[in-house]
Amino acid sequence: VQLVQSGGGLVQPGGSLNLSCAASGISVMTSTVKWVRRNPTKGEQWVSIIDARGQTYYSDPVKGRFTTSRDNAKNTVSLQMNALRPEDTAVYYCATREYRGQGTQVTVSS
Predict the structure, then answer these.
(1) DSSP string, 6-52
(2) Tens of pLDDT along 23-39?
(3) What is the pLDDT of residues 72-91, one digit of tens each?
(4) Are the beta carbons of 104 and 90 closer than 8 angstroms?
(5) Where on the phi/psi map is residue 62: left (φ > 0), alpha (ψ -120 to 50), or beta?
(6) Dist CA 7 CA 21 (whole Å)
(7) Measured between alpha carbons, how far is 17 from 1 in angstroms, rounded to an integer?
């Protein structure tokens, strides 16, 4: 089983980024996939969840700005991040209950 992430990088405040998580060995259609982020000051925070039914949930800091979705045909889950803020700077991970992607750095800075 692998979760391979792509996307991320450096963006100015107010900008947008899209993260992608490509799964192999499991089906995102029957899995709950969450996005979490980690930074040195705040530790690890959950960001979003998409469950097997396609229901989505968001933490308060990102609600209204971030959107998670999945592409069943490509077996991927994405995180679209809009209106980014410096406090969104972190390493982002996609994860299931058992597995985690390699992480991708998101830096929001002018």
Answers:
(1) EE-EEE-TT--EEEEEEEESS-GGGS-EEEEEEETTTEEEEEEEE-T
(2) 999 999 999 999 999 99
(3) 999 999 999 999 999 999 99
(4) no
(5) alpha
(6) 9
(7) 26
